């Protein structure tokens, strides 16, 4: 075997371990009874250590060096080698014991968070969060040294590869400068529209059927995936077996229907990845900014469009019967209604980026040591007041304790949501230029041209290109908020 | 760390890997969509290899030798060391590659079996079974050489430690000599009784509620376990998170109610194991004969007793309404009805051992090379005719393809069912001597004295004793069919 092939076999092994990790983590969120938590955390800690040992085995460095001299590699293999080297460097910086501690602390913290959030119990949660944060900081500091980047850039890169504060800051500055005013204008404009809320009970089994019908329309492959219920909607599992979840409230179906569209956007990206590269780093998705772009493209650009409501309204009527509120125009008003509120996952398209920017600014300070965990609730409330004009006070479940990210150790993830929204607008604008009938197709629940374009320009590339290269090849431009701001202007102001 | 402590840390690691294996295997049977199968098989193959490498790492042999000289070990530690040595010897005999092949072949075979059984497709199934069998034979032959035992004894020992053909043969011979006649007598006797089948629809959500009420009565801890639906009922997961499954048929509730009692018997054994030893081999259950004894004690001895029907009948009425058939006497007749039939898992208490003996005799020949896979259907049908007087002919789903065991590579498991039934009778007889009110308690759905005795005499021992030692300490006698035959006589003939 060549050095490159040796490396492929190492990373195939870690791919199998990632498979187990993904399924067991899905199980933890969807199936596991509370009493199983400690044993699960320990088992996952051991799994992370083994993954780490596998990548950092003594021969890897030599093989990486030899493979770098290998002139026979094609472009995908070269890109794969780049990912391997990056993963190796990331892994060798950090002692296996620290990796194990991070995994275990974050699982324990996340498990405790579920109950403590329900109990609005910041006091007992804070020390667990602090422990997780400190371990994440320790890992980031070690790697910052080795990669010659700032610790927070290292963490952003963990989730959105090759994205950093230098790329994010000007974009977020532009959004902070424009969104509050647009939000106000949109709120003024919507005063002239009367919106009707659908009333009655929307039985959960009917909502599940509607969910499946939407997934079918968007093209989810049920032979390689499932739909279940969890605390927060998410897309998990593995590309060959994608697990999406949602939650239902029998008093309304509006939220769960759109959560399904969002998660199905994630799922199709996974399901469309090129099979022959799935076992290798280059075949996986390393940019959560791109991943979120695929869910937000489906949710925000396609499924919240006025055109899609022509498909959604009659579909919803099939399951819930006819009522005045379930008509295309009214649904569109509901799905584009703007109202600053406390919860990020329930936020509208205009205020969502402000929720993200708040978290971005706070986690940056936490990682840099300029903010302590005990100071976090006050800092949170101050920024909520500043950006959204509201204050959750000591209702932590509506404030600093609302998200799973920090308790699970995912510092650096949040920017991906708003970058994803921006990329989604950029890709969708280009797709519509190449296939002008996309809006008419959406009105019929037909996603075929949209996905033809996405498969060719995004999904089939997996991680063979950087986010900037991919965007440039697909749209002619690197990351830019231009199409996003045009989209916002058109939907909420014109 | 002492050598013994080093070994404990190795086996703690494999315990964590077993945890992942158990959860992911449960997922495969209960949750996984068919398209996820290939990737899952590969990931589990890798996990098995890692487990194998962990146990067989170079230092293990030295540590075992040093720990053997360690005079400070207590009895549990000594027993633990014995299990470690046995696992090490088993693992070092076999190349890691063979372990990986067995795991992968059996997962592939089991996955294919699900569909091929539904299609009655023996032709395409046979080569997959043959591949699995050959790999199992290869592993058994290597270990037989090293342990100086016959290959089939090695496989029996894999599931029911320290049980072998020398123990089984006289017992099975006795059963073959008595059961067919008792079956005939019982069938004669029951002609005089008129049995009424409950009629109507028994909605699945109501059956689920009944199942949970039964689990509650038997003492299942829902904080450390779940109930779900699968193709075949089973008990999986880990001691801290026990997953039992059943299947429902809305035309009758009789089968699912008793399947639940059976699986809850397994589950309580797992949930009652001593917490401080769970991470080590001595803290786990290595005898499926004992495991089956706990499910069959609950199902056959306790829950099919006339006394328990006084609890079950009014409980079932709560969920399904009153009808003539749901009365204690009639339920008892239903639950003790005897009728030779094709399917083992649906068999009555009297013919079940004959199903097991048939499989025991066939798999012994398969492993010894005296029977080929292609000859299996004819041999199966011949023995069915001989022992039960019926012949499934070329309906393989009613014959040789009915069980998951062989496709999943579990040759040597079957004797555990009938040994379990015998141990169950032996333990129950003794428990009733020490707590004579157990039958009256069961009539009220109260399992407290029964479980007090079982916890003290069985569950708290985990694997610190051999099956024969445990039985002798608990009942005064080693394994014997005496109580079992008395029980059969009393229930079906007197």
Helices and strands of chain A, in N-to-C order?
HHHHHHHHHEEEHHHHHHHHHHH
**Terminal residue distance of chain A:** 62 Å
Proportion of strand residues of chain A: under 5%
Measured on Cα atoms, how large is the radius of gyration of chain A? 22 Å
Can you summarize the main beta sheet of chain A? 3 strands, mixed
Helix content of chain A: 55-70%
- Runs of chain A in which pLDDT lies below 50 for 5 or more consecutive residues are none
Looking across the biggest beta sheet of chain A, what order are the strands in? 1-3-2
- The average pLDDT of chain A is 96
Tell me the number of strands of chain A.
3
Which protein chains are joined by the largest interface, and how many residues does each one contribute? Answer: A-B, 36 and 36 residues
Features of this protein?
three-stranded mixed beta sheet, homodimer, 20 helices, 3 strands, mainly alpha, 494 residues
SSE diagram, text form:
Two copies of one chain form a homodimer.
Chain A: H1 3-30, H2 37-55, H3 60-68, H4 75-93, H5 96-118, H6 122-147, H7 151-159, H8 165-190, H9 204-218, E1 225-229, E2 235-238, E3 241-246, H10 254-271, H11 288-303, H12 306-320, H13 328-335, H14 352-368, H15 376-388, H16 415-434, H17 438-443, H18 448-457, H19 467-475, H20 482-492
Parallel strand pairs in A: 1-3
Antiparallel strand pairs in A: 2-3
Helix pairs in contact in A: 1-2, 1-3, 2-5, 3-4, 5-6, 6-7, 9-10, 9-12, 10-11, 11-16, 12-13, 14-15, 16-18, 16-20
